[in-house]
Amino acid sequence: MKRTALLTLLLATSNVQAVEVLATIKPLEMIVHELIVDGDSTSTLLHGNASPHDYALKPSDLTRLKEADLVVWFGEDLETFLVKPISRLNTAVTLQEQESIELREFGKKCGCGAHHSSHDPHVWLGPKQARQIAKVITEKLIELNPTHAASYKAKLMQFNFNMTKTVDQIQGQLAPFKQEGYFVFHDAYGYFEDYFNTNKLGHFTVEPERKPGAKTLIKIKTTIRDKNVKCVFTEPQFTPAVIESTVRGTNAKIGQLDPLGVDIEVADRSYFRFLQSISKNLTNCLAN
């Protein structure tokens, strides 16, 4: 009898495994971190101010990709540098291929022959999309570690509860500034802006590696003057001089939004602090 009980315990233990998840960027790791159970671990492929728009893989990155139990990336419309390495793996979740995740159209293509995103890849900035991402990842974690299925489902419920609470807080923070217009450096915040109905008047570029032309800059500067725009936002990953020159001679201030949460440490509820940081930086600039 004791031998049978011991054998059952050993078999159950053999089915339990710690899952190591590698996300390409910090906000995606933040989401995953909210969903894992004790023993699991998360990490980010890109560190510091590295941007997924122009990153170059290192040999050590390839090793980390191979060793991870699960790799979370948006897809070729963002991390083009990963297309070939990912094609050799069967451990990747490609978010842009998930039918359950509602993607935002980027608008007209440039017609220049180069590959440019047809969908907005910045899904982690949308509360609705973040919920959808969390569900996809939870299903994958359960598939990898079914013994902890109940715990993963409980984590997802907690994620959705915290999201509802965070959204309510952000709605209250933004409410007094819904009519205040602003510009951003690149079109990264569409999911956030659509969800919270903020008054973005435009952006300098759709993709940060593409510099805005002279006509675009003249049009932006004219709008800033005519509509008395309060703020133009840069990003820590990119500090283009064109923003300073465009704002010069107007009443607009230069603020900063960080779509990657560089200064936020990955920890419990860090994803929700990250969303709140976008709201806080918007309101801090628009309020003054």
Q: What does it look like?
A:
With 288 residues, the protein is an alpha/beta fold. Helices cover 43% and strands 12% of the residues. It is built from ten helices and eight strands. It has helices at residues 2-14, 26-33, 59-67, 83-87, 127-144, 149-174, 190-196, 214-226, 241-247, 270-287, and strands at residues 20-23, 41-44, 70-73, 92-94, 182-186, 200-205, 231-234, 253-256.
Low-confidence stretches: 5-15, 108-116
Count of extended strands: 8
Count helical runs: 10
User: How would you write the strand order of the largest sheet?
Assistant: 2-1-3-4
CATH fold title of the largest domain: Rossmann fold
Spatial extent as radius of gyration: 21 Å
Sequence of secondary-structure elements: HEHEHEHEHHEHEHEHEH
Report the CATH C-level class of the largest domain: Alpha Beta
In CATH terms, what is the architecture of the largest domain?
3-Layer(aba) Sandwich
Shape: globular
Strand content: 5-15%
Indicate the structural class. Answer: alpha/beta
Annotated CATH homologous superfamily of the largest domain = Nitrogenase molybdenum iron protein domain
Number of domains: 2
Rounded mean pLDDT is 89
Q: What is the helix fraction of residues, given as a range?
A: 40-55%
| Intertermini distance | 74 Å
How many strands, what sense, and barrel or not for the largest sheet? Answer: 4 strands, parallel
InterPro entries: Bact_metal-bind_prot9, Lipoprotein_PsaA-like, ZnuA, ZnuA-like
GO cellular component, one term: periplasmic space
Family: Belongs to the bacterial solute-binding protein 9 family.
Subcellular location: Periplasm
